[in-house]
Specification:
It is a single chain. By secondary structure, the chain is mainly alpha-helical. It has one domain: Winged helix-like DNA-binding domain superfamily/Winged helix DNA-binding domain (Arc Repressor Mutant, subunit A). Strand 4 and strand 5 form a beta hairpin. Helix 1 crosses helix 3. The longest helix is centred in the last third of the chain and has 24 residues.
Length: about 170
């Protein structure tokens, strides 16, 4: 049977785990590399139950050239969110249990990637005295929520969303 698509997730009728794609909703407050890091970790959590997920499979799931994803995956390995498995059947697997990896852990790893997109802050008094403090407060609140959200929560949402999508197609 053919897979069912749900805003970037596919689940086949044989009960295979969903594969998460990046084509669904994307939060505009996060850089693309951060969204991609979260999607990759969820994808690996759902699909690496018996064997690692290859980098090639991940690039196909997310419709990306490998150069975009490889730096993200390497950062996730460095931060011990993922572990890299070498060899002909190698790939990536979670380095810790799903409840021990938070969205904040994933974003911290993604922020470690120097891609030249972070422009230095201006010396504008308006930015420094008005805008920056408000944004810092918002970032702090955002980080608190992400620290409470773990990969198990995200997996549950992915599976629930795939089921809802499957129900709306019948």
């Amino acid at each position: 049977m053919r897979p069912i698509m749900m805003r970037g997730c596919e689940v086949d009728h044989a009960g295979q785990a969903p594969r998460i794609g990046i084509g669904g909703l994307v939060m505009s407050v996060l850089p693309r590399k951060n969204v991609l890091a979260i999607a990759a970790v969820i994808d690996i959590a759902l699909n690496a139950r018996n064997s690692p997920v290859s980098g090639t499979a991940l690039t196909k799931h997310h419709h990306l050239p490998s150069r975009h994803l490889e730096r993200v995956l390497q950062a996730l390995v460095r931060e011990r969110v993922l572990k890299g498995v070498r060899g002909p059947y190698g790939g990536y697997a979670l380095a810790r249990e799903v409840r021990q990896i938070t969205a904040d852990d994933i974003l911290r790893a993604a922020r470690s990637i120097d891609d030249g997109s972070d422009e230095p802050m201006t010396e504008s008094p308006l930015v420094n005295e008005i805008v920056a403090p408000v944004l810092a407060e918002a970032e702090h609140a955002f980080s608190r929520v992400l620290a409470r959200t773990n990969v198990a929560d995200l997996m549950t949402n992915a599976v629930r969303g795939a089921r809802a999508s499957r129900g709306s197609r019948h």
